[in-house]
Batch of 2 targets.
Target 1
Amino acid sequence: MKIAIGNDHSAVTMKSHIAEYLRVQGHEVIDFGTDSTQSTDYPIYAEKVAKAVVSGDCERGILICGTGIGISIAANKVRGVRCAHCSEPYSAKLTRQHNDANILAFGARTVGPAIAETMVDVFLATPFDGGRHQRRVDMIAQLEEKQTIE
Ligand code: RB5
């Protein structure tokens, strides 16, 4: 799978760990940075990963900041993004099954590497259930359209 990954200064070590973890499994990882621990602004990397995913260039995205919250809020401003902020694997699985989430966000300061690996594993492996969940995902897309019109 081709995966976009991005992070702010608080998550450089975690990003490198997860990127390597994915590459060892044979995934193609496009790293949008940052690789610096100098203070930066997480919306920059949220936008890069979001655009890589909604354009279809990458199948899924992974975003990491201190808590995962700011970077997920920013990514969800990009039309077509369904970014799920998770801190345990059950939510990472359910957000694929029910929300067809296309980006996983988590916090480098709130989640350890073993939990992060498991969340990434289930996020990439779990298919969307469709059915009644498709209707709800379609309603989210309609909300985006309404914001454009009003
Ligand atoms: C950066 O200090 C921190 O605010 C950021 O990584 C993130 O936690 C924001 O939601």
Note: Residues 132-149 form the longest helix (18 residues).
Target 2
Amino acid sequence: MLITATTALAKPTIYILATGGTIAGSGSGELSSSYTSGVVTVDKLLAAVPQINEIATIKGEQISQIGSQEMNNEVWLKLAKRTNELLNSGKADGVVITHGTDTMEETAYFLDLVVKSDKPIVMVGAMRNSASMSADGPLNLFNAVNVAISKDAVGKGVMVTMNDEIHAAREVTKTHTTGVDTFKSPNTGKIGSVFYGNVKFYMSPTRKHTINSDFDITKITELPRVDIIYSHANDNADFVEIALKNGTKGIISAGMGNGNPYPSVLNALQNGAKSGIIIVRDSRVGAGETTRNGEVNDDEMGFVASDNLNAQKARVLLMLALTKTNDRAKIQEIFYTH
Ligand code: ASP
């Protein structure tokens, strides 16, 4: 292609906000499975993919340098506020966030609910560290920038781009501990694909997100404590009791099957609901809806049903819902619309 002054001027500006993770990890050798997350700086990450400078004006910023297993509310709020600022001031046409894969789905959903812009926000990571043979980070990053500059990506909320696929923030989850094809959207499937920079979308997320979501974090500096409690056969109520005693504001019950907790756990959860704590009945299964008033009578017990969010995403949504209301019916409505 002939590069003219006009095409050069027309290049979109994409900010790469780096947070750490395996994409910024480095190990002891090409074939070693041992490595440390988040040690490679944003400048080095970008230098590994010079091709992105041909399609966009790239600016890099280091938000944090952590493995995403260390992700926390403070980094989430910093990342969300910076993304809002960049997109709404007109400084950026799109934002790409490099992130560890462990909690990428939680950060993606958090941002999807609180960023007030319809410009593309693309999260990307890697399953193989930068020193590994066939590292997947550089091509994933190249693809993520291509999604961020795509006109078709406008209005799709936060997306996760990995392994040539584009997933919507609400739907995507990590499904394999080591495979490069780890990210899947079990309830809906991917929304698009990106093959060596060639972006194609097949569908759009329909739940409320970004400019249409109910949440605004402009004035928020802290998020309420919400715990996840995982169910199993021959369970006991200890973790529920400890969470209640330690001041939790909400519990996501990752129940068996269609959200069924063990009897003693159910009893403890009901006591929690009676004392005003919001209990969201969810499932440990990983796909499908936890249906209201199925084997558990949510109306009678005072519970909220999670719709088809997995437990870690239900936790994100409940934290944000609790910044607005403590009313169970309103929170149930939030779960059915976001
Ligand atoms: N533990 C790493 C992280 O989430 C794994 C990865 O990035 O793939 O930061």
Note: DSSP finds eleven helices and 16 strands in the chain.
